[in-house]
Hints:
The complex is a heterodimer of chains A (about 625) and B (about 375). Chain A is an alpha+beta fold.
Amino acid sequence: MGRDLDRQKQFTRRALLLAGGKAVLLTVLAGRLYYLQVVEAERYTTLAEDNRVNLRLLAPVRGRILDRTGRPLAVNRQDFRVVVVAEEAGDIEGTLTSLGSLVPLGDGDRKRVLREVGRQRRFVPVTVRDDLGWEDVARIEVNSLDLPGVAVEEGQSREYPYGALLSHVLGYVGPASEAEAAKGDPLLVLPGFRIGKAGIEKRYEGPLRGVGGSSEVEVNAVGRVIRELDRREGGSGADLALGIDLELQQLAAQRLGEESGAVVVLDVASGEVLAMASTPGYDPSAFNRGLTSAEWKSLTSNPKAPLINKAIAGQYAPGSTFKPVVALAGLEKGVIDAGTGVFCSGALQLGNARFHCWKRGGHGTVSLREALIQSCDCYFYEVARRAGVEKIAAMGKRLGLGMPLGIDLPHERPGLLPTRDWKQSVFGTGWSMGETVITGIGQGYVLATPLQLAVMTARIANGGRAVMPRVVRDAGLAEGVGVRAKAVDLGLDPAHLRFVRDGMNGVVNAANGTAKRAAIREPGLAMAGKTGTSQVRRISRAERDAGVIKNEHLPWERRDHALFIGYAPVERPRYACAVVIEHGGAGSKAAAPVARDVLLAAQKIEATRLATGRPADSPGDPRRDG
Amino acid sequence: MRWHAFPRSGPSIADKLLQIRWLFILAVCAVSGVGIAMLYSAAGGDMEPWAIRQLVRFIVALGILVVVAVSDIRLWLRWAYPIYFVSLLLLVVVDFAGVIGMGAQRWIDLGIINLQPSEVMKIALVLALARYFHGLGSDDVGRPWRLALPAVMIVVPVALVLKQPDLGTAMMLMIGGAVVFFAAGVRLWMFVVVGAAGGAALPVAWGLLHDYQRKRVLTFLDPESDPLGSGYHILQSKIALGSGGVLGKGFLQGTQSHLNFLPEKQTDFIFTMLAEEFGLVGSLGMLALYAIILGYCIAIAMSARSQFGRLTAIGITATFFLYLFINMAMVMGLVPVVGVPLPLVSYGGTAIVSLMLGFGLVMCVYVHRDVTIPRHSTGEER
């Protein structure tokens, strides 16, 4: 019994020890609970919320692009895509087969869907086909009972109702590249989200895009949405009204036809672009859809360069359309006046070099007005020689040549006004008088874009105010992307401008004008202008002796560019226009009639609007309509 | 009412029922009640599929507890070894014929119930060791060779359980056995020696571990290094616990558990859900309930006059404590995730039945606390 008592005592001791140990360990647990649930509670509460709450972005509706009267040029089309949710469908293959009897499904689609279903979680919708029409949707909806797990989702796709007509102005949209997505808006990575990649779509991406909304949803551990906790609506993109007039644009493009060329029509007072055509164009929707490699290849290998907006990125020797600049330079420098006569023998001898007039045998003695009307080269050789290249370049610059104008379109090119310094820095050689002389007729190094020629014409027509071109109507919006909308006075002598305009009037309306066949006969709508034919090849002495080869006998890419600048009406001009037709031959034959039709149409459209009580200047601003 | 020998006519069943500490039973019912409520919450506010079954099992197990409590304690002494061998046999069977479940072989499908022999073994080992040490004089306890047999009795089931592989149960068997050794009066230096040997064998044991077990140990050491991989369970559990705060998110309101961020919330991680929904108040309350039960058990162990009764009670108390400690420490990120349920609360059939059987034995010890049992079954008392 004594030993049993010992045993009991020892047991009690050890049991108490064990109890103590348990008490200590339970205290450790309590301490840990205190640490987790009191000390660290805040941190873990945040983590729990992060787990639970997911922020989903809601894509805003992209703003439309409208013409000056509110006609839509770029719109959003409701787009339907059919999706399948594996978990609800059960038998995916069977579902796809039934679906395939309603809408065309390729083997590729089928395989892709099965692959994605295998990869995604069972409740994630997998797109079976997108870009479905109403009829497809209706067929699917009618049969929805037999198609478990199949749903039709709505999206937006960008559509350009006029296709290639405005491709260069509007540009196109596409998914953000990885580099773009990395630095910006989280919206950019949303599936199906598109951003502007060219043209207005690119330049006005900000206002067009709008602001994304967000939806806070509660999700479970596998990401399934349980419920929506909060929703913040975003703002749709703003509709954007352009200065472009759809009818005028259509006419300009139609008149260019199959040619490779450009037409720009400006409002001489505001600088608004009323039409900007560059042919050939491309289908902007094709970029949204995704180009095939064959399509891409045909676009890039086409010698008529359909991807380039020739109105702002095509640079051409302006030829005789440059002569008004030279005239103004000479007048301002005082080396000529309206009465100064220059004798044209058909060529100008300068040291060893001989500079020919386009008219064999010469024009005899001509004044400024006659020189413009007949486009006498010798006269302008002489003016250039007297004024000097620096003065010509300075005048060109004031009139908008030789530098980017800052129009609200991407990829504008600067053109070129040569000077002594320019030649020294580029070629490292000195300037020669021959180069000044050739600059006098817009050949040699001079380059200008059709837009620059149109701006130059507008500044001459509007009395010497430096209008800046812009595509978007709202000057404030345009200034937002860097357009200088306010026109400053260039300080040109009104008399000098009058002399030049008088000559340009004669070019079209005098009996011996180079563009007399393109004259507008309607009273009060007459046009003034200047033809230009710029050589793209050198005419050798041998060829000149044998008789210059006619354009129609040359291969297309060696023919002269046809140019014309014009404005209308002659009195109080409102519209300025530049036409360039690549390798079109003589400006008077190819380009002038296009300008005539376009300028006439511009005035008639305006007249119609006035008659119907709809002021051409202020069509309802669609951005404030709704 | 004391009876030194056990007369054949002994106290009646009614007498014994009066002996049962019903307050203890109440505490056990309270813990189980909380468990059933948490299972109701785990199902998103539904008695199906867990709470209702757990309730039925608990009622059955409560019956078993009462029946065992009033049974003759000498019956258990006599049957201790046979029970141990049957359990061992079941463990062998499960190793060869067990149904693969939870990534390890742990179950025997009996048609109605999936029997988990390792759970049964936890009780059987305590009984067998209690019986062995009951028959040992205090001098013999000091002799190392006398300890070889009970050591083998621990090592064999531990090896079988490790093979399944079930690290948690193996640990519980080992520590539970060691507690019985300790309570039986085995010299402290032997523990030191065995502990040192064990420490030296650790690298060897590391080599024997399965990859997933090693990974569990490693992620335990730094769970947040791999928040979507193996550390996910611990991290999510800690987030749930911590976000519960002092007062909790409210019954059925636990976001971590109801949105399934919490793994296995109806079994091993049920305490986390409780702590998330009822906060520090709830979790400490639960801890207090467990402490009350433990206190009762230890008091009972100390009140018993027979070594078998004492050791049985202390062994079962230790097993119960290991259950709750390992589980809670696991969900709090104090020990690796080893897959030990929270006693009386986690969903699971065998565990609740074997636990209640254990409590029945403890109560049986209490009811028979004044019964002296001869050291040898021959009846001779030294």
